[in-house]
Structure formats: structure tokens, C-alpha cells
Specification:
Length: 333
């Protein structure tokens, strides 16, 4: 006689996950749901009160954090991960990783691995996504998408998407079959109609439209990234990037040589030291205001150059640490 399980069959699919943060009446943020299936794994430490708790009107009482992991430390050829995130009004969520997202090689370029994340941000919700970079090994094919939906354009978002050239210690230098990453931000009005606010695509294809090798087209950079900033929770950070970009030395600017310089303020001293480190690390970056977003593009010769630069910029502004705490920067340490 065949054994019949008394439990209902699982409706979850391999690689699927869900994170739901809601308000428990009257005003307590809770992680109502967190579920995942192999190869995806989610880890949620205890939430922490924000450093600004009690000093701001309608400030959330807790900030939740979820780490995005994979069994085996990476994504195998053919794996497919699909994560859905919902952040309710007056809640804050930090999404992090516990190391670079490693992409293992594929036996066939047509056998690609995929990762998709869809995020719904309600009115007055805030999400900060500062993961470690994606690290595609040699002979990999990978595509990912991050789709964000802002209710009535009112949610706050700070998301970083960056990728490295592979395992530099093993001589890998953009030796991939293909890498694709797409970021989209949509809004939904009261009638439920969707409208695209921003689309940012990165396609790294060794072939492309030229015979030049991909490594030769990357200008000696081993990391390339995009930071997307929008919403009232990150308005200070957005303006800080714009101001610092505007203060960068421009081609044709005067060279004062040995002429005595006036005493610099502490911020000016920090800026000068940072710009000198950027030059030493071969770091290039830009910031632009695009349809209500601040879009930051950056690249550097080594991963640590970008990591230290991004951490330094966020800490100098201070608003993220004030609202989310030190935990938000764990992947940048």
C-alpha cells in the first residue's frame, strides 16, 4: 500500500522566495513572511531600532534586515532565482548579501543562470539595497533583473548594482560568455495603471559589435556599478552625490602650482583627500538627475577602490547611517 502524506503538497517552486514587511497595528513593523526554496536562502537577524528613533515624526520603530544567500556560495549554470519583496507603508528594509554573488561557469553559453527580484514599495516605505558585487567566473552566462514598483511615486529607494571582472587572483579579466543586468522602476497610480519611470541596462558581451576583446573595452577597470537613488528618505544622499560631482576638478581648470592655498574647511580637506584616492585607485564616477532619480555610475581598477569610495561617500553624508544604522553598510566594509 502506498504511503499517503498527511501534509499538503508544497506550492513553492525551486529558487522562489518572498519577503513581506508590514505594520502590526498600531505601529510596529514586523517581518510577516519570509520564505525560500533551494538554491535561494534568506536569513533575517533581529530588527534594530534606527539611530534616529524618537527624534523624527512618524519614524519607524524598527529597521528590518534580510541577507540574500545561495547554497554552495554561488549560482550554478541553469539555476533560476525569483525573489518577491513587499515593503509596507512606514517600514524600512535593508537587503544585503554575505559575500559576492559568485556565478559558476557553464558548459554551454546557451545554458545561462538567471536571477530576478521584484520589489513593491508602498507609500512612505524605504528600501536600501547595498549588496556585495556580482562576481561572474570565466566562461559564465548570467542575466538578472531588479524591478521596483513605487506606489504613487512615493516610496524611497537606494539600490546598488555592481559587477566585477571575475577572480583576479586566477587571472580572470572579463572572460565571460555574457552578462546582463536590468534595473527598472515603475509607478502605480490609484487606478492601478503602471508607468515606467526609469530603465537602466548593462550588457557585457564579448562579441558585441566589435572584434575587440571585452577586457580591452573596459579601460583597465575590474568593477563597474550603478547606484539608483530616489525618494524623501534618501534626498540628502542624492543631493550630496550631485554636489560632490559638481565639485570634481574639470578639464581646463586652473592649476595654481605652488601658489599658497587658503586654509581648507574639514569638509574641503575630506574632499581633497577623497579626490586624491580616486585618482590613485583609477576610480571614475558621474552623477546625474534623471526624471526625479539621481543615477550614479562608477568604475575602478580594483573592487576595493569602489567599495571604499562608496562607503566613504555614504558615511560622509550621514543620512543613511542616521536613518538605517551601521548595518546598512556591512557589505561595504
Amino acid at each position: 500500500m502506498a504511503f499517503v502524506s498527511p501534509f499538503d503538497s508544497s506550492t513553492s517552486k525551486a529558487g522562489h522566495g518572498s519577503i513581506v514587511v508590514e505594520i502590526l497595528p498600531p505601529d510596529t513593523p514586523v517581518l510577516r513572511n519570509i520564505s525560500y526554496q533551494y538554491p535561494l536562502k534568506l536569513v533575517a537577524p533581529d530588527p534594530l531600532p534606527p539611530p534616529c528613533n524618537g527624534t523624527e515624526v512618524n519614524s519607524p520603530r524598527l529597521v528590518h534586515t534580510v541577507f540574500l544567500l545561495t547554497y554552495g556560495g554561488g549560482i550554478v549554470a541553469g539555476d533560476s532565482i525569483d525573489l518577491h519583496v513587499q515593503v509596507d507603508s512606514r517600514t524600512r528594509l535593508i537587503l544585503l548579501t554575505q559575500g559576492s554573488t559568485k556565478i559558476f561557469k557553464t558548459p554551454d553559453p546557451a545554458l545561462a543562470s538567471q536571477q530576478r527580484m521584484t520589489v513593491q514599495l508602498k507609500h512612505d516605505a524605504a528600501l536600501i539595497y547595498l549588496p556585495d558585487p556580482v562576481q561572474p567566473f570565466a566562461h559564465t552566462a548570467f542575466s538578472q533583473s531588479q524591478i521596483y514598483s513605487l506606489e504613487r511615486e512615493q516610496g524611497s529607494l537606494c539600490a546598488c548594482d555592481w559587477v566585477t571582472s571575475g577572480r583576479s587572483a586566477r587571472g580572470e579579466n572579463w572572460d565571460i560568455y555574457e552578462y546582463r543586468s536590468r534595473n527598472e522602476v515603475w509607478t502605480t497610480d490609484e487606478a492601478g495603471k503602471k508607468r515606467l519611470l526609469l530603465r537602466d541596462n548593462l550588457i557585457l558581451d564579448p562579441g558585441g559589435r566589435t572584434d575587440m576583446a571585452l577586457s580591452s573595452r573596459m579601460d583597465n577597470c575590474s568593477v563597474f556599478g550603478t547606484l539608483i537613488i530616489r525618494g524623501p528618505s534618501f534626498s540628502s544622499l542624492a543631493q550630496f552625490f550631485l554636489d560632490e560631482f559638481g565639485a570634481l576638478p574639470r578639464i581646463g581648470g586652473r592649476n595654481w602650482g605652488d601658489t599658497a592655498q587658503p586654509d581648507l574647511t574639514p569638509k574641503e580637506q575630506w574632499r581633497l583627500a577623497r579626490q586624491q584616492r580616486e585618482a590613485s585607485d583609477g576610480l571614475m564616477w558621474s552623477a546625474a538627475n534623471v526624471r526625479g532619480f539621481v543615477l550614479v555610475k562608477f568604475a575602478s581598477r580594483a573592487v576595493e577602490g569602489s567599495r571604499e569610495w562608496l562607503k566613504d561617500m555614504i558615511k560622509q553624508d550621514g543620512s543613511v547611517l542616521h536613518a538605517f544604522g551601521e548595518r546598512a553598510l556591512l557589505c561595504l566594509k
